[in-house]
Amino acid sequence: MSSAKFTDHVYALTRLIPQGKVATYSSLARALGNSGAARAVGNALNKNPDAPRTPCHRVVRANGQVGDFASGSAKKIKLLKKEGVIVWQGKVDLEKYFYEFKNKKQGC
DNA sequence: CATATGACACTAT
DNA sequence: AATAGTGCCATAT
Which nucleotides of C are covered by protein (CB under 7 A)? Predict the structure, then answer.
């Protein structure tokens, strides 16, 4: 059993990313409470490249770059494009496709 | 317990 | 703008 709450939570949030949207490693880390654990987030996803329920390809860099991918960044870009995310020059428009994790309770 | 690794981020050059 | 160097955090060994 994995007690790695961190990694476990990373998958949970990644699964919440709707199709056609993208999140950033840093943002994910922040949602977990570890704002500076962007690297750790990436590690978590990299360790689970087989998780079909975890759309790890929807997680990109903070600067809009698609970043790396276990099966190759090209594959990642392809998947994103298929989902409706326009990837141009290996970058995505975070202003348009960025998905912010929100608590289902809050509504402010 | 210390060292090494890694799908990142930021600052300086 | 692009590249390099440094920092950060979690896991694996």
Answer: 7-12
